[in-house]
Amino acid sequence: MVRLTSERVDPWLLAEQEKTLEGQIALGTLSRLAPLLVEDSGEAAFVMEFGRDEHGRSVIRSSVKAELRLECQRCLHTMTLPVDASGVLALVRGPMEAEQLPAELDPLLLQENESLELARLVEDELLLSIPVSPRHEAGVCQSHETAHAGEPVAETSQETAPNPFKVLAGLKTGSTDDS
Ligand SMILES: [Zn+2]
């Protein structure tokens, strides 16, 4: 396991050698990602498997896992977005080569001897995993809007299992109103 901040590697050589790199990166060191987070503590775990596919292309099979703390765009409270992203990147030397790739392969444009910053790759995966407008799931979100516009399923579940906070609120108002 390697712990890195800005380690650079030669992806072409690693693909030839069929090397696998794995490790952790502190989220706070990722300059494009960190400003989007409510808390930038924590780490992303990654596995990058360099090798060749059945057509002899140099590829990276990547897996990135992290828990991102974001601001819910509906209730503005902190939410945790679990990220478990995996994909296959094909190393290409130019746009022509990129166009010839099948849809399931994402191109990673690099010059023949250009080194690759692993952290950048991990950061790209994380950024792609963040929705345009991150939100809690309905039912978890603390927004009043969602409570009123609840789906039928959520309403029935609320009836069978009353929210303990609502019961507390009822007790409070009851005791003050009776006096
Ligand atoms: Zn929310």
How is this structure best described in words?
This protein has 179 residues and is an alpha/beta fold. It is 30% helix and 31% strand. The chain is built from six helices and eight strands. The chain has helices spanning 11-17, 95-99, 118-129, 144-148, 152-160, 164-178; strands at residues 2-3, 8-9, 20-26, 43-52, 58-71, 78-92, 106-109, 116-117. The strands form two sheets. Strands 1-3-4-5-6-7 form a six-stranded mixed beta sheet. The protein has a two-stranded antiparallel ribbon with strand order 2-8. The protein binds zinc ion (ZN). Residues 72, 74-75, 77, 79, 135-136, 141-143 line the site of zinc ion.
Please name the defining characteristics of this protein.
179 residues, 6 helices, six-stranded mixed beta sheet, binds zinc ion, alpha/beta
Runs with pLDDT <50, length 5+?
A: 146-160
Helix content: 25-40%
- Are any ligands bound, and if so which? zinc ion
Query: What is the general shape?
Result: elongated
The number of helical segments is 6
Largest sheet: 6 strands, mixed
Beta-strand residue percentage: 25-35%
- H/E element sequence: EEHEEEEHEEHHHH
Strand order of the largest sheet: 1-3-4-5-6-7
Give the N-to-C terminal Cα separation.
Answer: 66 Å
Number of strands: 8
Number of domains: 2
Q: What is the radius of gyration computed over CA atoms, rounded to a whole number of angstroms?
A: 23 Å
Mean pLDDT value: 83
- Structural class, please? alpha/beta
Task: Describe the structure concisely.
The protein is α/β, with parallel strands linked by helices and 179 residues long. 30% of the residues lie in helices and 31% in strands. Residues 72, 74-75, 77, 79, 135-136, 141-143 line the site of zinc ion.
